[in-house]
Amino acid sequence: MTDIKALLQSLGIKDVNPGACTGRWIESEGGKELTSFTPIDGSPIAKVVQADEAAYEQVVETAHEAFLTWRMMPAPKRGLIIRELGDALREHKEALGELVSLEMGKILSEGLGEVQEMIDMCDLAVGLSRQLFGLTMHSERARHRMYEQWHPLGIVGIITSFNFPVAVWAWNAAVAAVCGDTMVWKPSSSTPLTAIAVQHIVNEIMDRHGLTGVFNLVIGSGRVIGERMINDRRIPLVSFTGSIEMGRHVSEATARRLGRSILELGGNNGVIVMDDADQNLALRAILFAAAGTAGQRCTTLRRLFLQKGIAAQMTERLIKAYRSIPIGDPLDESTLMGPLVDEAAVQAYLGAIDLIKKQGGEILYGGKRIDRPGFYVEPTLVKAHPGMEIAREETFAPILYIFEIEDVEEAIALHNSVDQGLSSGIFTSNLYAAEKFLSHEGSDCGIANVNIGTSGAEIGGAFGGEKDTGGGREAGSDAWKAYMRRQTCTINWGHELPLAQGVHFDVEA
Ligand code: NAD
């Protein structure tokens, strides 16, 4: 049994916590109280006083001032500070991972995995701090040198979703910090305590270096604090992770002021299993991707395309496996599926089940709420047909639609026929099918895997999706470029002034 009081204490969380911080905690006199509940049984954990207008102003002002000095620290030195952050996260991994499970409801091994992702992100950023490369170009003009360089951008607004309450912050924060940016984080109102715990860990590191205002926190509703951030011209970049509906709004608001956004939005991810696939491999991958995190990952597997020859057998095996998924308290080590995040999520699940029946889907397994305190539902398998509108939407719950397909061509067409484009996979031992899936006429997603499910991306690759998923990329490859501004520089070290494109403009002077 977890001693919740001791856990919270070890992470600096009190019964009532201030919701704004620049390194120093700010009391918001006009801020409304927000209670954080655990989805494990719906009981309250602790309270936060949300940031009021004055606190928000103080945070953004401090972030701006801090930027002016932070950007002048050499990037490798900033990297050393991120290395310390990674070490501190290693020390707090158990406690923070447990708090993620308690507040968000994912199972403990996934809570710990999420903190590991933060650590991996710090490691990546440390290396990156010595690799913020620009290119050199050959000038067409004699004795001219041309190159590009990357400068820090300013304040990065980080707005995060509830389902990865700490990892998504790290994807952005570790990279933004080594790039020389400061940042303001607005976490989801469902998971404010994990954010407060992270801020305490960060404060400890920054205190050692006498720094404030690099990593900042403002807790408040999307309608109030979120709106302020996306419309704030002092924040040149907003990195937003959340639903497509909100992402569209964030994109419009930032574009209106010609600001930039990184959008990491919803998915409707598919896996194709061909007749020649290793069925055992596919089955294990499908189970984790579809039922893991109770279907609350952006990369959760929602649509399964089974080739005719194996469809009946795979479906049978899936039903059998679904029956044996241990559901319950996510902090209990034997549990593989925890609760949904809140009552609204349960209602969205039940609403989707209704629509599935109305639209001619057949519930093969599940479809019901589980009768116990908290927000537990049955993982659900649906025999689906391509005309079902509900299968085109992302219902943030463990519902898997199963389609039967003739061949890889039909599977890819059906797979690509939805608006979202995040993660995808194919299980096959056939070279043609695998390469076809990865080709220009294959999967249209940002992530495409062979003999791997849709969930559980590694740090190092650029993460993100196409179409309504928003086009953003984070966490690896050259994603860092979004956090900096590019400058092209041309230096004339000769005594002539030739103009580009051979233009003459000679005046006696
Ligand atoms: P959500 O859209 O409800 O909320 C996301 C964030 O937006 C929260 O912090 C919320 O407070 C904030 N917000 C709300 N109104 C706002 C406004 N007017 N202005 C600015 N911010 C506002 O999403 P959620 O339910 O927390 O998360 C689940 C969704 O996130 C799913 O669709 C999931 O697929 C997506 N997601 C995507 C990725 C990815 O990398 N593609 C990763 C995780 C989650």
Task: Summarize the topology.
Elements: H1 4-10, E1 16-18, E2 20-21, E3 25-26, E4 33-37, E5 44-49, H2 53-70, H3 75-91, H4 93-104, H5 108-128, E6 136-137, E7 144-152, E8 155-159, H6 167-178, E9 182-186, H7 192-208, E10 215-218, H8 222-230, E11 237-241, H9 244-256, E12 260-264, E13 269-273, H10 279-291, E14 301-307, H11 308-323, H12 343-358, E15 362-365, E16 380-383, E17 399-405, H13 408-415, E18 420-421, E19 423-427, H14 431-438, E20 447-450, E21 466-467, E22 484-492
Parallel strand pairs: 1-5, 8-9, 8-11, 9-10, 11-12, 13-14, 13-19, 14-17, 16-17, 19-20
Antiparallel strand pairs: 2-3, 2-10, 4-5, 6-7, 7-22, 15-16, 18-21
Helix pairs in contact: 3-5, 3-7, 4-5, 4-7, 5-6, 10-11
Nicotinamide-adenine-dinucleotide (NAD) is lined by residues 159-164, 186, 188-189, 222-223, 226-227, 230, 241-243, 246, 249-250, 264-267, 298, 394, 396, 422, 465, 469.
Question: Which features would summarize this protein structure in a list?
Answer:
2 domains, 37% helix, Aldehyde Dehydrogenase, Chain A, domain 1, binds nicotinamide-adenine-dinucleotide, 14 helices, Aldehyde Dehydrogenase, Chain A, domain 2
Short précis:
By secondary structure, this protein is of the alpha/beta class. It is built from 14 helices and 22 strands.
Structure notes:
- With 509 residues, the protein is α/β, with parallel strands linked by helices.
- It folds into two domains: 4-9 and 16-265 and 470-487, Aldehyde Dehydrogenase, Chain A, domain 1 (3-Layer(aba) Sandwich), CATH 3.40.605; 269-458, Aldehyde Dehydrogenase, Chain A, domain 2 (3-Layer(aba) Sandwich), CATH 3.40.309.
- The chain has 14 helices and 22 strands.
- The strands form five sheets. It has a seven-stranded mixed β-sheet, with helices on both faces. Strands 15-16-17-14-13-19-20 form a seven-stranded mixed β-sheet, sandwiched between helices. Strands 1-5-4 form a three-stranded mixed β-sheet, covered by helices on one side.
- The termini are far apart.
- The model has no long low-confidence stretch (mean pLDDT 97).
- Bound molecules: nicotinamide-adenine-dinucleotide.
- Residues 159-164, 186, 188-189, 222-223, 226-227, 230, 241-243, 246, 249-250, 264-267, 298, 394, 396, 422, 465, 469 line the site of nicotinamide-adenine-dinucleotide.
- Nicotinamide-adenine-dinucleotide binds next to helix 8 and helix 9.
